[in-house]
Amino acid sequence: MHQLGAGPLLIEHEGKRPDIASSAYVAETAVVCGDVRIGPDSRVLFGAVVTADGGPVEIGSRSIVMENAVIRARERHPVRLGDHVLVGPHAHLNGVTVEDDVFIATGVSAFPGAHLEREVEARINSIIHVNTRVACGTHIPIGWIAVGDPAELFAPDRVDDYWPKLKQLDFPGTLFGIAREDLTMEKLTSIYVELFGRHRDDLLLIDALPKTEQSPANRVAPTPRAP
């Protein structure tokens, strides 16, 4: 059983294991699974999950993945986060490309094929839909929805305006390889049963991190106070 004090939960998946720079920090309750590379001075905080489910994840240097964020790569949609990227708490990035100097706030969701160019700001609870390209320097307002290539921005109540554009982006085909009219819950859950069932043979890695300041073996006990 994995215990606190043993370091983060690092997992080998389908023969591939995380590659974490010695200057990076991964919190004890974070999970890093499979073909994941985390660059110098980057930080993955408590409760975050970074998982390579069929495709690789690459996180650049000095990027921050905050508490309870989920980053997932897919077979046809790897994840790449550039340098100086901040991913806020409870954000969900699924098969996306994020260039350098991007701010992703709390609760943001971005879906496969999405591409956030440099200096984008995606504010709280905003959504970047499949196959959407957000141009350099764009600010997505709180709760708004980005759709298309290049992205158009819509308030949440403008569903009649964005739905035709979103339908053209083919969410079911992009995520599941199934036409919208053929997608059933049975087919959808079958896809995920097979995909996530591959984790049954995962290997928990012990002492896989380099001996840095975060490793229990390198921690210095505090000096006792004089009585």
Topology overview:
Elements: E1 9-12, E2 19-20, E3 25-26, E4 31-33, E5 36-38, E6 43-44, E7 49-52, E8 57-59, E9 64-65, E10 70-73, E11 79-81, E12 86-87, E13 92-94, E14 97-98, E15 103-104, E16 109-110, E17 115-116, E18 121-122, E19 127-128, E20 133-134, E21 139-140, E22 145-147, E23 152-154, H1 159-169, H2 171-176, H3 185-197, E24 203-205
Parallel strand pairs: 1-4, 2-5, 3-6, 4-7, 5-8, 6-9, 7-10, 8-11, 9-12, 10-13, 11-14, 12-15, 13-16, 14-17, 15-18, 16-19, 17-20, 18-21, 19-22
Antiparallel strand pairs: 1-24, 22-23
Strand content: 25-35%
Mean pLDDT: 90
Can you tell me the CATH class? Answer: Mainly Beta
The CATH architecture term is 3 Solenoid
Cα end-to-end separation: 38 Å
Could you describe the largest sheet, including whether it forms a barrel?
Answer: 10 strands, mixed
Q: Please bin the fraction of helical residues.
A: 10-25%
Rg, nearest Å: 19 Å
**What characteristic shape results from the CA principal axes?**
globular
The number of helices is: 3
Let me know the number of strands: 24
Would you tell me which CATH topology applies?
UDP N-Acetylglucosamine Acyltransferase, domain 1
SSE order, one letter for each helix or strand: EEEEEEEEEEEEEEEEEEEEEEEHHHE
Uncertain residue segments: 210-227
What does this structure look like?
The chain has a single domain, classed as UDP N-Acetylglucosamine Acyltransferase, domain 1 (3 Solenoid). Helices cover 13% and strands 27% of the residues. The chain contains 3 helices and 24 strands. The radius of gyration is 19 Å and the shape is globular. The protein has a 10-stranded mixed sheet with strand order 23-22-19-16-13-10-7-4-1-24, covered by helices on one side. It has a 7-stranded parallel sheet with strand order 2-5-8-11-14-17-20, with no helix packed on it. The longest helix is centred in the last third of the chain and has 13 residues, at 185-197. It is an alpha/beta fold and 227 residues long. Strand 22 (145-147) and strand 23 form a beta hairpin.
